[in-house]
Design brief:
Blueprint (H helix, E strand, L loop, with lengths): L1 H21 L2 H8 L1 H20 L8 H15 L10 H19 L2 H20 L11 H21 L7 H12 L4 H16 L5 H21 L5 E8 L5 H11 L4 E6 L6 E10 H14 L4 E6 L13
Antiparallel strand pairs: 1-3, 1-4, 2-3
């Protein structure tokens, strides 16, 4: 009991130290380096949407799908804004309520990066020209490529601890509160409802191809969004005193550890084994901490595990 209390006190001190460092210039510099990558993700997404999806006259999912739909309805009514792609502006306006709600639930830096991502997408969608002809001859190939490119762009934005807005913000809130599902799965479920409504407005082929786009978009986004992938990490070390390593892991990652006393079968030498559950995004940080104390530590990662119980999903 005494040892556990001592470790708990050390972990609290480590967390306080990290909190002070997060307010310093080092943390600010680290976060600022993510903005160019977020811009790259926004560019990739915008290219996929304007250059591959829009020439097919298909519809994206979520808020962007509604924005495209609204622009189409205005065009049918004779309002075309001089050929200007207004869907990005509609998308931005629809995101305002969601950003206000998220600002009350999520960290400030996440909101700042998300506003930057949504703004970048809005601008890029307005300036990137839409081709008159398909880039790929086959319609299905264009649809799949559009889904993969757009999903990759969204995944990069999510990977940087931001969000492209729309249903993804709502999805992140649901995952963080419920601890289950993924952003891509929630967006896909919402899109099924959206495309079901579109069946009454468009021909069935448009809806089917739009749904195919949505599926590949969700798959690509989930594969890149490593914060959304849970991993089990097993660490085996011969260190006699592992307390400093335990304190840094729990203090910096805010993750619990399970310690098991074991021994080598051939040598009989005592070892310590730790079981740690983190997101795939945190694995590299965990590995760096462990290796700084024991360069010869044995580390095994199992990605994509299903976890029930009190496991915190850190998506930002």
């Amino acid at each position: 009991m005494k040892k556990e209390q001592s470790i708990e006190e050390l972990v609290v001190k480590e967390e306080e130290k990290i909190a002070r460092n997060d307010q310093g210039t080092k943390a600010v510099k680290k976060e600022s380096m993510k903005f160019p990558v977020i811009l790259l993700g926004a560019f990739i997404y915008s290219v996929g949407l304007n250059c591959f999806l829009r020439p097919l006259h298909l519809y994206s999912g979520g808020f962007m799908g509604f924005a495209q739909l609204f622009q189409e309805l205005l065009a049918r009514a004779g309002i075309n804004f001089g050929g200007f792609n207004i869907s990005g502006v509609f998308y931005y306006l629809m995101n305002v309520p969601g950003l206000v709600i998220a600002a009350k639930k999520m960290r400030k830096r996440f909101i700042i990066k998300t506003v930057f991502a949504v703004t970048a997408i809005t601008v890029l969608l307005s300036v990137i020209p839409i081709p008159d002809t398909l880039i790929l001859e086959d319609r299905l190939s264009n649809t799949i490529v559009a889904g993969l490119i757009c999903g990759a762009g969204i995944g990069i934005i999510l990977w940087m601890g931001a969000c492209d807005g729309g249903m993804n913000i709502i999805g992140m809130l649901i995952v963080m509160l419920k601890g289950k599902g993924s952003v891509g799965q929630i967006s896909l479920a919402t899109n099924v409802v959206l495309y079901g409504v579109m069946l009454f407005m468009f021909d069935i082929s448009t809806v089917i191809y739009s749904l195919i786009y949505s599926v590949f978009n969700s798959i690509a986004a989930d594969k890149i969004h490593t914060q959304n992938i849970s991993s089990q990490v097993t660490v085996i070390t011969k260190l006699k005193d592992t307390k400093p390593m335990e304190v840094e892991v729990m203090g910096r990652l805010n993750r619990g550890m399970t310690e098991i006393d074991a021994s080598g079968i051939f040598t009989g030498e005592p070892v310590k084994m730790f079981l740690i559950f983190v997101s795939k995004y945190e694995v590299s940080r965990l590995r760096a901490i462990v290796k700084s104390y024991d360069p010869s530590a044995f580390i095994v990662e199992t990605a994509g595990v299903h976890i029930d119980g009190n496991f915190v999903r850190k998506l930002t």
